Structure formats: C-alpha cells, structure tokens
UniProtKB/TrEMBL annotation, chains A, B:
This is Homoserine O-succinyltransferase. NCBIfam families: homoserO_Ac_trn, PRK00175.1. It catalyses: L-homoserine + succinyl-CoA = O-succinyl-L-homoserine + CoA. It is found in: Cytoplasm. GO terms for biological process: homoserine metabolic process; methionine biosynthetic process. It comes from Tessaracoccus bendigoensis DSM 12906.
Length: 377, 377
C-alpha cells in the first residue's frame, strides 16, 4: 500500500445551525439545532486553497482515515487518505463529516427533538440530496473554507458531490465521483424499498418509536443489511470468496448457517446492528431513490458558466450502480461541455471496489489530484 | 396465443405412501403418509406411451392449466399446455403435481404429523431433489405410467427433471429443462438465505410453531417474496414496466408506496400470503441450495447407457439462473455424449420468461415434442 496511515485522529462535533439560524430544507421544513461530526487531516494552508471534502456513502461516517485512540482498525477510507496516499495529507487539508440524517454524531432521526425532548423518529423531516450539501457547506464556513480544491465521494457520497457541483460550482475546483448514479433504476429502487420494508415490518419498529418504547427492529435491519450486501459484491466476487464451500468444513444440511456465504451475511448483518440506526437507514436510502438532478434541464446551467473539472469512475463488475449509471452522468456533463474525465476501472469486486485499494483506481485519483495541485502551485 | 385453454379442470389428491410403505428419503428419514395433489389433462393412450410430466417451480402447484370451477384465471402454465398448445393435450396425457414439501395439497411441513396430531413444522424432514422425484414416480405408478414421453420443468422444476433423468433415465424419453441450474452460485444461495432469514427472524415465526401458536411470520414471508421478485425480472424489464414513475400520478416523497415499482412489490408480497406457506418456502428453497448432482462424477453413467434426449433452454436476460447455468448442464451432458439441444432464447423478461408466451421459446418446445411424437407414431 502506498503512503502511510495518519496515526491517531479524533472526531469533533460542531453546531452549524441553531434556533436563530435553522437549516432551511428543500422540502420547506426547518431544522435546528444541527450538529455535525467531522474529522480533519493535514494542515489548511494560509489562503485556505488546499482543502478537500470527503462525502461518505450510505453507512459511512466522519472517521474516514487514521485510528481512533485504542482502535485496531482505521477509518473506512484509510487506504485512500493519508501521507503519500492518493488523497495526500502532506498536501491536502482533508475534511470528512457524517451526513445529515446519519447516526454517527451528526443530527439525525434518532437525535432529540427539542420540541418534545424525545427522539424525532418519523417526525424528522424527509431529506433531499441538497440538504446534505447545505450542511457540508455550513461546516465549511465554520472551518473558514470558501472553496475546495476537490470534493470526493463514492456511491451516495458521489451523489452528494454531483449535487454540490451542480448547485454551487464556484465552491469546488474538481469533483471526484466514484460508483455513483444520477438516477436510480426501478431495480435499484426495488432493492431499496424491500430493505426499508424489512425494517418497518419488524414488529420491533413500533411505528418508528422503538427508542422510547424499548423495542428494536434489529432483525429487520440485519435482513436489510444482508440483502444490501448481496448488491455490493459482484456475482464473481461472491463465487471467488465463498463458492459453495461449507462454513464448518463439510456441508451438513440444516436451516441455519451451513454455507460460508451464509456466515458472511450473518456476520455483516449482526455487526451492522452495533453501529447503525434503523431510522437513518430509512431516511438515507430514501434520498437516493428520489435523487434525479438532471430531470431539471437547467440544473447544469450554473456549471456551464463556472466549470468544475470532473472525474467520474465506474467499476466494470459493479451491478448496483453499473458503468451505465456513470456514463449517464458523463453524457449530461459533456453535453454541456463541462470538462470531464471518465474511467471504467477493471475490478472483480463489484460496487465495494470504490472502498478498496485497486492500483489503477488509486493511480487515477492520484493523477487527477496532482493536476489540481499543479494548478494551485 | 396458439391453441386453446382446457376449460374446467380439477385437482385430485391421492395417497402414494403410507405407514406400511413409507417414503424412504435421501436423508435416511421415512415419511408417511404422503399425499399428492395432481391434475391430468388429455387422454392416456392404451399402451400408456403418451404421458408428459410437469414439474413446477418454487411457488407453483398442481394446477398448471385450465380453469378451476368459478375461477377467472387459469393455471400457471396455461399458455403452454392445452389443445393445440406447445404441450398439446390433443396428443399428450399431461400430469402435473404439487411437490413434496409444498403447501397446495401435497404433504408438507404444515401437514399433520401423525405422531403428534399437530403440524410437523420444523420436525418435517429436510428434503432432497431426489425425494421430489420419488414422489413423482410413486404418483406415476398409481396412474399406470411406467415411462414418460417427456418430463418438463422450469427453474426448480427443471432441476427435478434433471435429477429424475440422472437417476432413472429409463423412465423418460425426453427431458425439457428451462431456466434451471445444476448448482447454485454463492450469490444464488445468498438471496435464498436472506429470504429464509426474513421469515425465521419474524417474531411471528415462533420457532416454526406458528400454526399452533396462532402467530404468523407473514411480514417476513412477504419481504422474502418481494426480494425474490427482484431476481425474477431482468433489470431492463423492471425499467420498462415501471421506470421511475409514480404510483399515484406524481411523486410525493414519503416512506410508504410512492414509486410504481414499490406498489408492484407490495402487491406481490401481499398476494403471496394467501397462497403460500412460510415453512414450505424454507424447505423448498433449501433443496435448491444443496442441489449439486454433477459433484458425483458417476451420476451420469446410467444416462450414458440409457440416453434421454435433452432440451435445455435459457433466457438471455435471466440473472437468477443465467445462461451460464444452462451451459454448465449442457457441458456435463455433452461430455458424456448425451444427445442435447441447447437454446438461449432472447427475452427481455428475465427468469420469469419460462412462464411467459414467447414465440421462439414456444416454437422450440413444440418442435422438440413433435419429434417425440414422430418417434412414437
């Protein structure tokens, strides 16, 4: 692996909207307070021109790189961010935050509703991709950053990058969008819907009030997560990793865990429970279903006037957001003469590839950011 | 549509194994009584050489064609079976039965266990593809049929056809296998496992004793069915049928049913509850996971000595059991010089195609059975 890990890092929390200055949401609702959990890596230069923003995917968080005190596993994108890594913290000041509606420090549906003193639950307002971006922007203002050299994200993270670039192109030099989509297909929505149904039909869901009622839709959440994991890996990756091998040496027919692939899914489902909130899962997945920025033919006008350089990356075995999803983004950008580089990377690992250290992918990111650095110099 | 519907038909039930002559299962267990629900269409000729057996897929039943008294919808394969249809009842005597472990008249896990007077539930023995075949064979004996001109099935039905042909090749002239597999991939097993988990984790499952405890894992069963339906259609079929259109004219963001595809899945999940049993779902899906006949290198020996003519059909957009699954069956058969015709049919509809009236598919089946009829004449 190129470069090194950052070492010890920590998550901070800052209030970016309050009752006097609430977040005005796309739906018309207002929300306050809004706290944001974030981490930063590297040093902001004196004219604040070397900042890079990281937008996380559905189940990510602000802890993108380095180690929390006492942890043995680093942040979720440690292979990408660090000294000498593709997003090189010797050069860039990197900001990573937890998304609005999340459950890892940023205000979300399980946060206390100041009007009731109880968790919002389903009273939390429905979210839009633009709301995520407004919260990122508010954090940036707090940090004294008016414009980012680059904004980077994969999957739902890439969708935030796209939204940000479309609505506020002057705030970034480059946009890096990996394994993302500008519009979910019916099949994408179908998977998303069934995952939510698994949660909402769990008797422990208690109409969303499980936190105050002492129940939990944990079984539904683990089923949703197991199903989602099937879509994160390619069919060949599943076959290569597990094939039909038995978990315990030899197959012995039963209804529990017999095949290795069953054990993997069970483990993923179980592990997810300790770190994710069923309500956040509902809110965040639903934002993706509705995201469709190019439905507005004028959405790209601001970008044409104030170009951002795009890097769009897909992975050839990703069947959650296939290369066709990336091509669609590229078609819209190129149709408006927005400077866009597109790369389909070969990787056997499917959608999860954007999280992995794949030489061709990392080299592409590094080269694209090298050019950003040259422009700054 | 070519040909006509059969008109009124009815399901009969016959006991094929009893306490004095129980079903001896592959696992070593015995089972009695075993009742089988079946239907027949057309006339058996005097030397009983014109019989065709239909094996159904996961959620099918004995009612393959024609109408039950008072019904407005015909059996599940009415477009395939009837006078003048590809499986022509003017020529063939067609037998269709409900599978062992099913819930549509044949003995299954919700049947009464004579030892306790209560439903078997999870005390029902685990099943093997060979057990399905033994019950089909017992029904055939009851009907005075020693050999079938053809045995036909799609998906799990095709897997039964393959098993029967491998273990008792003298009992059929032709084997027609559509959209099937001789060995599930890790991804196939993963979908299967998550569906079962949705059922078994439903608090209404009550360790399988829901029938006597007055609970029901209906929410889990509907989630399993919704997820399975995603795999039955191709991505393009979902896109063509539903795209991103709203169920109620215009999208109005919420967590319920807003997109048309959500309404479709909800309807499929709901409708399934009235006709299917959660325990049968567990037992039948598990048989598919373990099915792997060619793991035994000698399994094909009997077939080489007593050839059956095979027709193997796949559909180009089927991603549940892709063409590669069919090719694998063909490779094994041809490797042992078993006469095999293979056709990949173009259809936009994915796995469900085997149930649909697709000209090229129906013409292929008709031509293959015409040759069987010529041999008999």
């Amino acid at each position: 692996m190129s470069g090194e890990s950052l070492g010890i890092v920590e998550t901070r929390i800052v209030t970016v909207f309050d009752r006097d200055d609430p977040l005005r949401m796309r739906s018309g609702a207002t929300l306050a307070p809004v706290e944001v959990a974030y981490e930063t890596y590297g040093e902001l230069n004196s004219d604040a021109t070397n900042a890079v923003y990281i937008c996380h995917a559905l189940t990510g968080d602000a802890h993108a790189a380095g180690f929390h005190e006492g942890d043995t596993r680093p942040g979720w994108w440690d292979n990408m961010i660090g000294p000498g890594r593709p997003i090189d913290t010797d050069r860039w000041f990197v900001v990573a935050s937890n998304i609005l509606g999340g459950c890892r420090g940023t205000t979300g549906p399980s946060s206390l509703n100041p009007a009731t003193g109880e968790p919002y639950a389903l009273d939390f307002p429905l979210l839009d991709m633009a709301d995520f971006v407004e919260v990122h922007r508010a954090l940036a203002r707090r940090l004294g950053i008016r414009s980012f050299a680059a904004v980077v994200g994969g999957s739902l993270g890439g969708m935030q990058v796209l939204q940000w670039a479309l609505s506020h192109p002057a705030e970034m030099g480059r946009a890096l969008i990996f394994a993302a989509s500008s519009r979910l297909t019916a099949q994408n929505i179908a998977f998303s819907a069934v995952g939510r149904q698994a949660i909402m039909r769990d008797s422990g869901f208690s109409e969303g009030k499980f936190l105050t009622r002492g129940t939990s839709p944990s079984k539904g959440l683990s089923v949703a997560r197991m199903m989602a994991h099937i879509t994160y890996l390619s069919e060949e990756a599943f076959q290569e990793k597990f094939g039909r091998s038995a978990q315990g040496g030899e197959l012995s027919p039963n209804f529990g865990i017999d095949f290795a692939v069953e054990s993997y899914l069970e483990h993923q489902g179980q592990r997810f429970l300790s770190r994710f909130d069923p309500l956040s899962y509902l809110y965040l997945t639903r934002v993706m279903d509705y995201f469709d920025p190019f439905a507005d033919p004028h959405v790209i006008d601001a970008l044409a006037a104030d170009p951002v350089r795009f890097l769009v990356v897909s992975f050839d075995t990703d069947w959650r957001f296939s290369t066709e999803h990336s091509r669609r983004i590229v078609r819209h950008l190129e149709g408006s003469r927005v400077p866009t580089s597109f790369r389909e990377i070969h990787s056997p690992w499917g959608h999860d590839s954007f999280l992995l250290e794949i030489d061709d992918y990392h080299a592409t990111v590094r080269a694209f950011l090298d050019r950003a650095a040259e422009e700054l110099a």
